[in-house]
Amino acid sequence: MTDSAIVAAYEIAQARYGEYGVDTAAALEQLKSIAISLQCWQGDDVHGFETSEASLSGSGLHVTGNYPGRARNAAELRMDAEQALALLPGRHRFNLHAMYGEFGGKKVDRDEIAAEHFYGWRDWAKANQLALDFNATCFAHPNAASGFTLSHRKPALREFWIEHVQRCREISAALGREQKSPCLHNLWIPDGSKDLPADRWSPRARLRASLDKIFQVTHSSSAMKDALESKLFGIGSEAYVVGSHEFYLGYALTQGKIICFDMGHYHPTESVADKISAVLQFCPELLLHLSRGVRWDSDHIVLLNDELRALAEEIVRSNALERIHLALDFFDASIHRVAAWVMGARATLKALLHALLEPRAKLLQYEAECDYGARLALLEESKTLPCGAVWDYYCLQMSVPVGMAWLEEVARYEEKVTSRRV
Ligand code: RNT
Ligand code: ZN
Question: N or C: the chain end with fewer CB closer than 10 Å?
């Protein structure tokens, strides 16, 4: 498609949306201000850069696929991330995990990491005008092999993980101060058991005590913020997860922490979208992990499906764009990893655009008039309004590839760079 054809299609779309009282230019202005945090772990299948052979076993996380060209070190991962970011309209963020520190070939255990191990990331982020987010890595480590970390029955092991998380929060604060944007620290732990526990109470009581200890150290919210992520079940924690939804929701709401909803961490028919307007009545902010659950897996690449669309709609309808942090969380090693990043991020942006283009005033009017037939009809009609033409125009305006052209860029990058990694 030529540039002028893209513009012509946009102008028709603009007029079409205008008929429903929707301002496409205003929607694009809003879209421009939304940042998505790209997960570093999609680039290397959650390996990280520690010297020890970190294995995901016991973590409940499982990456499938062996597409060639995985990033093997920080330089490669940064290069791949830059390529992905270059194919996304807008300015985004980058989400680190503690196991991605640069340790100079030395063994630095999780309870020894410090900000200096992330200076390489800090400098890279600065050069690329990116802000960083951070995650403690409470898995892929011998001290997590039992499947328990912060709720472990042994005090010494709990102490190890408490120290790790405290250090991660300090690193987050250091990064946040420098980048002049709060670094969001998310805590997810794998703790749970494969089969029926006889005692569900004690691990939760221990987790609560560990969290209390961790959060005794406070950091300025202009430097870092704390989020807590629950899960329904994992591989090897099918019968019991210590950090369940109710556990963390209770903790976050009573202790002033941010709750993280991962789209793949709920019952398949449960709507994460519906939780937004419920929980935001009681807390200022939310973190959303954008993911796609497929049967037993919670980590497929997000696509523009009903769940993602509903989620974006609820964010926009709740007027909560400024209260919600969006972070991608999937890992797929069966296709090119840069393509996975780009697809997930572009799908998210498209969902947000679709939501921003909703004929909201008209829908609310029908609702106020109790004209539910008209409300339903317009909801249905709005699905096929020419959102794609507005999206194409946005990509053109933001100087990123329009349509499938991004895939050609990935193919070129693969040929030149990732296919040579052997
Ligand atoms: C795991 C959680 C968590 C991880 C990352 C790697 O089930 O979703 O967010 O995916 O920390
Ligand atoms: Zn997650």
Answer: C
Closest residue by CA, ligand 1 atom 10: 329
pLDDT of residue 57: 72
**304 and 211 in a common domain:** yes
CA distance 160 to 275: 34
pLDDT at site 304: 98
Query: What residue ranges line ligand 1, CB within 6 angstroms?
Result: 41, 46, 61, 135, 188, 229, 231, 262, 289, 298, 329
- pLDDT confidence of residue 385: 98
| Segments of the chain with pLDDT less than 50 | none
Fill in the DSSP letter of residue 234.
B
* Residues 177 and 325 reside in one and the same domain: yes
262 and 391 in a common domain: no
Using alpha carbons, select from 138, 232, 234, 240 the residue that is nearest to residue 185: 138
pLDDT (tens digit, 9 = 90+) per residue, 273-328? Answer: 999 999 999 999 999 999 999 998 889 999 999 999 999 999 999 999 999 999 99
- Mapping DSSP to helix (H, G, I), strand (E, B) and coil, where does residue 328 land? strand
Of 356, 379, 411, the position where a domain reaches its end is 356
**In contact, 114 and 167? CB cutoff 8 Å:** yes
Q: Relative to the alpha carbon of 236, which ligand is closest?
A: 1
Instruction: Report CA-CA distances (Å) from 307 to 80, 240, 268, 299, 390.
Output: 28, 26, 11, 14, 21
Q: Give the residue numbers spanning the domain of 256.
A: 34-356
Q: Report the pLDDT value the prediction gives residue 310, as an integer from 0 to 100.
A: 98
Provide the CATH number for the domain around residue 61.
3.20.20.150
Cα separation, 279 vs 274, in Å, equals: 9
> Nearest Cα to 362, choosing from 381, 390, 389?
381
Q: Return the active site residues.
A: 188, 229, 231, 262, 265, 289, 297, 299, 329
**344 and 417 inside one domain:** no
Whether residues 225 and 329 fall in one domain:
yes
* 47, 110, 231, 262: residue to mutate for ligand 1 pocket, most atoms within 8 A of CB: 262
- Per-residue tokens: 386: 């020419």
Residue 186 and residue 167 share a domain: yes
